[in-house]
């Protein structure tokens, strides 16, 4: 019997209640939100349940929503895949903007190790319990996080660029 979206939703609602919400089907990906303090329990459940079998972590990334209220300014997004049924799901956990942190899942999916490091490097999200949470692509001396919306798009001190060539001026030439 094929794994249906309603089965996933029913199992999650039965097990986690209000901690899992905002179910949504977008094309072939079933999406939902999880309370940040329940993320490891939900992912472990999705992986170990004999019917659900989401054994593959496809992706993990961060998103910055600076216009949201403080407790929902960052989200960590997880993409899981059930290869047996070829079913994909997206899980979103919102976290606090002033102190963005969430539990690591590197003890559940070893592949998340580098994904969490990259998310930390670019968004400053602290993955509690991560075995080696440090910058992976940017310099260790860097004090900012370049994927946050407040990070400047360009180096304002550059003198080697002429904005006219990039369509950034209204002057006719």
TrEMBL record:
Its EC number is 7.1.1.-. SUPFAM superfamilies: Nqo5-like. Residues 153-173 are annotated as: Disordered. It is a peripheral membrane protein. It is found in: Cell membrane. It catalyses: a quinone + NADH + 5 H(+)(in) = a quinol + NAD(+) + 4 H(+)(out). InterPro entries: NADH_DH_suC (IPR010218), NADH_quin_OxRdtase_su_C/D-like (IPR037232), NADH_UbQ_OxRdtase_30kDa_su (IPR001268), NADH_UbQ_OxRdtase_CS (IPR020396). Keywords: Cell membrane, Membrane, NAD, Quinone, Translocase, Transport. Its main location: membrane. Residues 33-155 form the NADH:ubiquinone oxidoreductase 30kDa subunit domain. GO terms for molecular function: NADH dehydrogenase (quinone) (non-electrogenic) activity; NADH dehydrogenase (ubiquinone) activity; quinone binding. Residues 153-166 have a biased composition (Basic and acidic residues). One of its GO terms (cellular component) is plasma membrane. Pfam families: Complex1_30kDa. It is an enzyme of class 7 (translocase). NDH-1 shuttles electrons from NADH, via FMN and iron-sulfur (Fe-S) centers, to quinones in the respiratory chain. The immediate electron acceptor for the enzyme in this species is believed to be a menaquinone. Couples the redox reaction to proton translocation (for every two electrons transferred, four hydrogen ions are translocated across the cytoplasmic membrane), and thus conserves the redox energy in a proton gradient. Belongs to the complex I 30 kDa subunit family. NDH-1 is composed of 14 different subunits. Subunits NuoB, C, D, E, F, and G constitute the peripheral sector of the complex. This is NADH-quinone oxidoreductase subunit C. The lineage of its organism: Bacteria, Pseudomonadati, Bacteroidota, Flavobacteriia, Flavobacteriales.
